[in-house]
Amino acid sequence: MEWSTIKNQLVCFVETITDKEKFTPKNVLASITIIYSLFLILIGFISTVLNVYIGDGLLQIFLLLITSLILIQSIYAFIKSNVRLKLLSMILFSIILILSTYYLPALPPSYDLRSYDISAAFLKFLIVSIFLMVIGILSVNYSFKFLYDFGRKSKQYSAYFILILSVILVLYPLFIIVSTILVNGATGITWEFLTEDVSRHGAEGGIVKNIIGTISLILGVGVCALPLGIGAAVYLTEYAKGGIIVRIIRITVDILQGIPSIVFGLFAYALLVSIFGFCLLNGILVLTFLTLPIIIRTSEEAILSVPKSIREGSYALGASKWQTIKRIVLPPALPGIITGGVLGLGRAAGETAPILFLGAVFIGAPAIPDLFAPFQALPYHLLQLIYYIGAYEVEQNAWATAFLLLSIVLGLNAIAIILREKFRIEF
Q1: Using alpha carbons only, what angle is made at residue 210 by residues 207 and 211, rounded to the nearest 5 degrees?
Q2: Share above pLDDT 90 across residues of the chain, in percent, rounded to a whole number
Q3: Phi, psi of 317 (to 5 degrees)
């Protein structure tokens, strides 16, 4: 569904509730409930992001207000409309809201489930935040039903609202992760942190060698994986004839994409360490094979998206197969190929498990990267800092390392988006 369609529906809804001729108590009540429900969703969202509990008193006020609005809607609809049977769910929802007004603020700060052999704690603020978002969503849904007399139009607007909310909820975890790392890690980024080496088990010093090692891994994987992946994709789409061999190759690529990264690391440990020792080259090779399936599949899909008629036109003009691929097929497929390549490199930059056994070290790597010497990398460094939390004062540096690693991965994705839009060709 296109954004313009959703936008038009929202404009139509706003015009409906603000039309002077239709400015009735029913419209006003529905509008107030919808606005207030969206406010509750926002409060729940902010509370979760900031790890803040709004307080028992404020929670009771919020719940009393939304309960009152839903009850008034239920009574109004029961008196004025002929859809009383359909009001049953709305009345049940009102009862749940009444009970939550009493019981939810009385919850203890946390629940410990170790007595049930489950080691977990559910913080009160998290329960309350999620509950506020849920009742906000349901209240909007019931307000649409109330406004449009439980008809088809109410289902349509509820569907649009859920679609928009789905997009927000998809971005919600990403926002929480990025904001948490940003708040905790940005303050640790200093010139000394970026230019000095590790000291005192990571409690002091910086991560300059880890930055260099991570960049070396990314460049090495790019040099090895991109030509191989794109070449394999070109072969599978343009040269290989459909048959059992091609199907086996594609199935194999899909299987490789699903293999856990730790398995790649163990395999490389058994095969490569005995040949090259613990060194940077091992990390580049194993991450190359880890990212190849992503690059092959995305490049293959990008090439297949180029219309067949363009190829046929090129052949009709006398171009050879390679000329057609080079000048006709690859340019329009380039945005998809770039996206797949950068996604693969982004995954390589953030992987820890494959390099654990292959030459990654916490300290002592050469300042200038050497293919046949151990190396330092941001993911491995972050893992070690997590191990040291509690024993040494490394928490701030751990957050700063996570922030820098996230910045590199997001930066690669931003570059992919920019290049994709720059080279995009419309048919």
Answers
A1: 90
A2: 11
A3: -85, 0
Tell me, letter by letter, the H, E, C secondary structure of 309-377: HHHHHHHHCCCCHHHHHHHHHHHHHHHHHHHHHHHHHHHHHHCCHHHCCCCECCCCCCCCCCCCCCECC
Q: How many CB atoms lie within 10 A of CB 130?
A: 14
Q: CATH code at 220? A: 1.10.3720.10
Q: At residue 73, what are phi and psi to the nearest 5 degrees?
A: -60, -45
Does the residue 310 lie in any domain?
A: yes
* pLDDT one-digit tens code per residue, 53-83: 788 888 888 888 988 888 888 888 777 766 6
Contact 194, 208 (CB under 8 A): yes
- d(C-alpha 55, C-alpha 62), whole Å: 11
Q: Is 72 exposed, middle or buried (0-12, 13-18, 19+ CB in 10 A)?
A: middle
Give backbone dihedrals phi and psi of 360, rounded to 5 degrees, phi first: -70, 135
- Cα–Cα dist 214/193, whole Å: 16
CA 102 – CA 81 distance, rounded (Å)? 31
Q: How many other β-carbons are positioned within 10 Å of the β-carbon of residue 190?
A: 11
CA angle 419, 423, 427 (to 5 degrees): 140
> Which tens digits make up the pLDDT trace of 204-213?
888 889 999 9
Band (224; pLDDT cuts 50, 70, 90): very high
Same-domain pairing of 209 and 154 = no
Domain that residue 40 falls in: 3-186
CB 31 within 8 A of CB 17: yes
- Whether residue 49 is found in the same domain as residue 164: yes
Q: Domain for residue 427, yes or no?
A: no
Q: What is the pLDDT of residues 179-213, one digit of tens each?
A: 888 888 888 888 888 888 888 887 888 888 999 99
Distances (CA, A) of 60 to 67, 98, 102, 154: 10, 10, 8, 29
- pLDDT higher than 90, residue 392: no
| C-alpha span between 69 and 357 (Å, rounded) | 61
Exposed (0-12), middle (13-18) or buried (19+): which is 420, by Cβ within 10 Å?
middle
Among 1-15, 159-173, 408-422, the range with the most confident prediction by mean pLDDT is 408-422
* Residue found under tokens 């000394």: 192
On whether both 203 and 124 belong to a single domain, the answer is: no
